[in-house]
Amino acid sequence: MGEQQRRLVQAxxxxxxxxxxxxxxxxxxxxxxxxxxxxxxxxxxxxxxFVQVALNNAIxxxxxxxxxxxxxxxxxxxxxxxxxxxxxxxxxxxxxxxSVLSRLxxxxxxxxxxxxxxxxxxxxxxxxxxxxxxxxTHIGDSATSKPDEFSLQVSYRLPLLTPIMRGMFGSDxxxxxxxxxxxxxxxxxxxxxxxxxxQVVPDATTPCVNSGTHFQLKVSVQPTSPxxxxxxxxxxxxxxxxxxxxxxYVGSSVSSGTVTFTTASYSAGSYYVILVSGTNNSGKxxxxxxxxxxxxxxxxxxx
Length: 303
Prior knowledge:
single chain, alpha+beta, Immunoglobulin-like, 2 domains, 4-stranded antiparallel beta sheet, 4 helices, 12 strands, 28% helix
């Protein structure tokens, strides 16, 4: 083989080597992109599975409690974390720490109470409505009567971390859990509950109104007695940092009734409200601090 032929062969080998190297780089880049997307999605899916298991366990405990003490499954008591002394029976034994929502919250420390919806009651198999409020055992009724079958349902807004999951489901993934039970007894708890603080809830009729120029958010305080440690409300956005958006000054003590936030600065999304203390600053609560012993409201959404 002459010198010229040897050089041509070597040039072909070098060219083929460079082509193979470039092809390998392209294949590696495509593979890494796919693997990053797959594993990033697996992170959020794993978190969702973990939260779903915790949510199922929590609603299962709440429904089991409600089946043993059906009077506490009455719709007016389900989510009452404050101790209701206005209704002598059975409210003190079915509110506060004895409420169905309290049993749900105590079941898992891994669930953020601010991301939980209120507990709602449905009919059998998580559909329709229950026949009686609260459910009845029908003991002593006709031989054909059966205990009321009911279901408790709750939802949870799981914040998503990875871009691919946010692109598919938005900033939050809403998880649902439901548990079916029957009324087993007609008794109340043998002891009264302990107050878990004032409860702030979205207005039942129109918690959020989007007029196109502003958002109007309305919440109410329960129960009816004033909460002397708080003199205002704070509105927060339901992101990972609980961004403070607005405050509302009420006075020396927060009494029963409703309060409405109205401003053009809100954007579509989910919000929650807390009771705060602070001084009056032109209708706002200056340097708001959450009052000890109070619970955040559940989420309400403006779209």
